[in-house]
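Quick start: what a row looks like.
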Amino acid sequence: MNLKLTDKTYMIDNIWAFVFSADEEIDYSAGEYVRVQLNHDNPDEKGPKRFFTNSAPPYEGVIQITTRLTGSTFKDALGQLLVGDDALQLIKPHEGDFVWRDTDKPILFVAAGIGVTPYYSILMQRVYEGKDIPVTLLYNGRSELLPWRNEFAALQEANPEFKVEYQIGERITPENLHEQFPKLNESLVYLSGPEPMVEDVGEGLKQLGLPEDQLMQDWFPNYDGGNY
């Protein structure tokens, strides 16, 4: 399925949002991801295919890729697309289990940099549906230049049960998460960000007593501690 670029917006730092429409209805759950293909000249070793979270809430009915333009041949080709172009192809529909789970436990969303994209979709969809967002979002970044800070501030203002905390310039570790959130092992914990961080922190949290069925993980490939 070919996707048409309908909007291209610079957000902050090297982060851009690309909004695509399709000829067919796009049906998905907030937090799911897609696989896309963008054919381009001289692709690098990773080729012309990528996975991306759809950062748009489902009520918008579009696919939004919010990503850092990190200098790969794929990202360069994506950045060169113009509104109206339909070169991007959807080759695998929405899938994934990094979605909202109803629970009586406290909910902690841990986002490292661009790993925030599924949370934006999840939170905005629940607000649109008139549902509560009893969540604490820990938003970690290499710098203060993070997308959707204003939107999260507005959510916090309008929804007393939602809280956002920022952690800038330091690594996420199982130990500092437990220090910040003493009841972490009694919580439902979502962890999203660079693949190495999600793997290491997730394993560490389980070793410190977090039950495996209370851990949700979303791995972002091609990111590491220096570019997330």
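That is the whole record. The mean pLDDT is 96. Residues 107-220 form a domain with the Rossmann fold fold (CATH 3.40.50.80).
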